[in-house]
């Protein structure tokens, strides 16, 4: 008699633990009108996001304009946000650069400032081969006592963190998670099926798809303006209401598209919308430029439509 394949499923196939929470926001870095770091605004925005359902914040990532903030600003941001949220949320500090030594320095500074984890992107521009990439990640992970989330976003870095490389890195005791922006569902499932790495959807349109195959949660740019949006998607899925989870994910698509797929970086659209909603954001730093009034009006329309539908259904 043939044994059904489902009979072989064991506790080992359960979803990996979420080391930094499930619902993470890739938080913008607020600036003053003059372009200086706005630590008070950062405290207020972080408190708002956590009160609205985020159990983790990623600081100084892509959305946080890490290429144009100084090392001192990055450390000050972590310390200020830690002061604001206490132990109510995990703080993951973006420390990835194109230079291994510099990345290690930022990792140690983030640890000292109070971060709970490190977001380490693949070195950009130099496009190291996979063996050099693996050595880079191992050196950074060895340098501090903090757990590491690898950031796979080849569209920006020019280098893919290949699934086989991730399989090798999964054995490192402090490499615990991946922020996945690779758009490779097969590769993601390959790593999920063979390791205990916690995957976080880094592309908002993929939150439900990756969660359904075993991801731990998400790191969302859209969560800056709608922090409870994808939390509701995960909650519905966990409650067994997969139809509602799918409905909520689809309902978010117009806002996702207007913020993430309309030709402007998510930092620009998130800051435009946050400012229009009266929340701390401020300008972007050059070479980025602010959204024009027409774009901001379109963002507000998409946000308003989503908010109205959520209110009608009491999400």
UniProtKB/TrEMBL annotation:
<protein>
    <recommendedName>
        <fullName>4-hydroxy-tetrahydrodipicolinate synthase</fullName>
        <ecNumber>4.3.3.7</ecNumber>
    </recommendedName>
</protein>
<keyword id="KW-0457">Lysine biosynthesis</keyword>
<dbReference type="InterPro" id="IPR013785">
    <property type="entry name" value="Aldolase_TIM"/>
</dbReference>
<feature type="site" description="Part of a proton relay during catalysis">
    <location>
        <position position="62"/>
    </location>
</feature>
<dbReference type="GO" id="GO:0008840">
    <property type="term" value="F:4-hydroxy-tetrahydrodipicolinate synthase activity"/>
</dbReference>
<keyword id="KW-0963">Cytoplasm</keyword>
<feature type="binding site">
    <location>
        <position position="63"/>
    </location>
    <ligand>
        <name>pyruvate</name>
    </ligand>
</feature>
<comment type="similarity">
    <text>Belongs to the DapA family.</text>
</comment>
<keyword id="KW-0220">Diaminopimelate biosynthesis</keyword>
<dbReference type="InterPro" id="IPR020624">
    <property type="entry name" value="Schiff_base-form_aldolases_CS"/>
</dbReference>
<dbReference type="InterPro" id="IPR002220">
    <property type="entry name" value="DapA-like"/>
</dbReference>
<keyword id="KW-0456">Lyase</keyword>
<feature type="active site" description="Schiff-base intermediate with substrate">
    <location>
        <position position="179"/>
    </location>
</feature>
<dbReference type="Pfam" id="PF00701">
    <property type="entry name" value="DHDPS"/>
</dbReference>
<comment type="subunit">
    <text>Homotetramer; dimer of dimers.</text>
</comment>
<keyword id="KW-0704">Schiff base</keyword>
<feature type="site" description="Part of a proton relay during catalysis">
    <location>
        <position position="125"/>
    </location>
</feature>
<comment type="pathway">
    <text>Amino-acid biosynthesis; L-lysine biosynthesis via DAP pathway; (S)-tetrahydrodipicolinate from L-aspartate: step 3/4.</text>
</comment>
<keyword id="KW-0028">Amino-acid biosynthesis</keyword>
<feature type="active site" description="Proton donor/acceptor">
    <location>
        <position position="151"/>
    </location>
</feature>
<feature type="binding site">
    <location>
        <position position="219"/>
    </location>
    <ligand>
        <name>pyruvate</name>
    </ligand>
</feature>
<dbReference type="InterPro" id="IPR020625">
    <property type="entry name" value="Schiff_base-form_aldolases_AS"/>
</dbReference>
<dbReference type="InterPro" id="IPR005263">
    <property type="entry name" value="DapA"/>
</dbReference>
<comment type="function">
    <text>Catalyzes the condensation of (S)-aspartate-beta-semialdehyde [(S)-ASA] and pyruvate to 4-hydroxy-tetrahydrodipicolinate (HTPA).</text>
</comment>
């Amino acid at each position: 008699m043939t044994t059904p394949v489902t009979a072989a499923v064991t506790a080992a196939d359960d979803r990996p633990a979420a080391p930094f929470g499930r619902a993470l926001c890739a938080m913008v870095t607020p600036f003053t009108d003059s372009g200086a770091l706005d630590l008070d605004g950062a405290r207020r925005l972080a408190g708002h996001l956590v009160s609205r359902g985020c159990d983790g914040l990623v600081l100084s990532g892509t959305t946080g304009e890490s290429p144009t903030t100084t090392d001192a600003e990055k450390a000050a941001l972590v310390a200020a946000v830690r002061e604001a949220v206490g132990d109510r949320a995990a703080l993951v500090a973006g420390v990835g650069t194109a230079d291994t030594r510099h990345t290690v320095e930022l990792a140690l500074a983030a640890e000292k400032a109070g971060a709970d984890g490190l977001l380490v992107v693949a070195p950009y521009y130099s496009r190291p081969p996979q063996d050099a990439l693996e050595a880079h990640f191992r050196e950074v992970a060895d340098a501090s006592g903090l757990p590491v989330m690898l950031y796979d976003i080849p569209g920006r870095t020019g280098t893919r963190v290949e699934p086989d490389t991730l399989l090798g890195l999964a054995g490192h005791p402090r490499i615990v998670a991946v922020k996945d922006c690779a758009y490779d569902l097969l590769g993601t499932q390959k790593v999920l099926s063979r390791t205990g790495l916690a995957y976080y959807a880094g592309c908002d349109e993929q939150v439900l798809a990756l969660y359904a195959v075993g991801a731990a949660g998400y790191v969302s740019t859209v969560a800056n303006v709608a922090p409870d949006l994808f939390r509701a998607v995960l909650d519905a899925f966990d409650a067994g209401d997969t139809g509602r989870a799918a409905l909520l994910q689809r309902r978010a698509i117009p806002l996702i598209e207007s913020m993430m797929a309309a030709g402007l970086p998510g930092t620009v659209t998130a800051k435009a919308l946050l400012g229009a909603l009266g929340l701390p954001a401020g300008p972007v730093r050059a070479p980025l430029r602010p959204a024009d009034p027409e774009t901001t009006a379109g963002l507000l329309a998409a946000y308003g439509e989503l908010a109205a539908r959520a209110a009608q259904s009491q999400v």
